[in-house]
Amino acid sequence: MLQKYQHCLVSLIMAGGVVFCWLGYMYSTSLSPNEGPSKYDEELTWHPVVLSDRSQRKQAMLMEPVRTDVLTVTPWLAPIVWEGTFDPQVIDEAFRSYNLTIATTVFAVGKYTRFLHALLESAEKHFMVGLNVQYYVFTDLPSHVPINMTLGVGRRLKVVKVPKFDRWQEISLRRMELIQTAIEEYIHQRANYIFCLDVDMIFHGRVGPEALGKLVAAIHPWFYWVPRSQYPYERRTISKAYIPQDHGDFYYQANIFGGAVEDVHRLTKTCREHLEMDKSAGVEAVWQEESHLNWYLWKNKPTKLLSPEYVWDDLRGQGAKEIKLVRFSSVIKNKAEVRENP
Ligand code: GAL
Ligand code: MN
């Protein structure tokens, strides 16, 4: 009798242990960000100690808009970030106490590894300075990654080996899938936010926590003055990236997008599924993942938009009067020379 009782007790303890381990596992793999206020869009808490007198410099005046030359808010009330619309010092002080970690993915495949050093060097000067940044460099050539670069405090770099793709379009097509998998496997446990950057880019000015939000995208520097019917969206109905002529908000460039880890996970998962459906239908969207990104952001409105200051193109030069500060821009490259195929 006693033996039977002991047997039951042992079974109970074992069952309890299994349930406990399972709960622990579910918790650790859950995709909600670990700690930190990634939902600050709705509820940015201002710690009284955070705002020093020094930061309370300029009063916001309702009748004195800071920018009258450009749109600073979307019809769905998401801010569009331009120079002059925020005070960098106020933003920095507000975010300092949160100890946020920003995962940052960069794809450097084939000859594109040549852009890495300049990108990382400029990111160390301008990108999320003062926050924890984890760079994830996806490459087929790990030996080309400048791992000896000195990174600032709280910043580190991890190399992720990926297969060599034959066509540059393939790199663009696989990027969503690789980011999705990386988020599921490790990023979700380590970061609050994630930004995905093109490698053939350079930071010239501040890109800081003013760019953080649940779902963030940057407005392409070549199309922001044209009617949407002229945006280079995918226009063939057979593609999952199809957007009709009279729809869409802005044309976003895929060179930088990001947000809270959970939101970017949803974005990459959907785009990946759509890219695969297109592939089985034998269709490739006109601008590959960028077309799918634009479709996703048409259906799921970004909570914060970055003005073209955040994704400039050196080919456009310096003349645009609405651009007070170029922060991040595509470097001029010989496409025929760096791409593996036309
Ligand atoms: C180009 C850019 C491409 C793509 C295209 C869309 O300026 O280099 O990456 O965004 O615009 O038309
Ligand atoms: Mn590029």
UniProtKB/TrEMBL annotation:
The active site is at E290. Mn(2+) binds at D198, D200. Binds 1 Mn(2+) ion per subunit. One of its GO terms (cellular component) is membrane. One of its GO terms (biological process) is carbohydrate metabolic process. Its main location: membrane. It is found in: Membrane. GO terms for molecular function: hexosyltransferase activity; metal ion binding. It comes from the Eukaryota. Keywords: Glycosyltransferase, Manganese, Membrane, Metal-binding, Signal-anchor, Transferase, Transmembrane, Transmembrane helix. The lineage of its organism: Eukaryota, Metazoa, Chordata, Craniata, Vertebrata. It is a single-pass type II membrane protein. Its cofactor is Mn(2+). InterPro entries: Glyco_trans_6 (IPR005076), Nucleotide-diphossugar_trans (IPR029044). An alpha-L-fucosyl-(1->2)-beta-D-galactosyl derivative binds at H220, E290, D313. UDP-N-acetyl-alpha-D-galactosamine binds at F107, A108, V109, Y112, D198, V199, D200. The keyword Zinc does not apply. The chain crosses the membrane at residues 7-27. Belongs to the glycosyltransferase 6 family. Pfam families: Glyco_transf_6 (PF03414). This is Globoside alpha-1,3-N-acetylgalactosaminyltransferase 1-like.
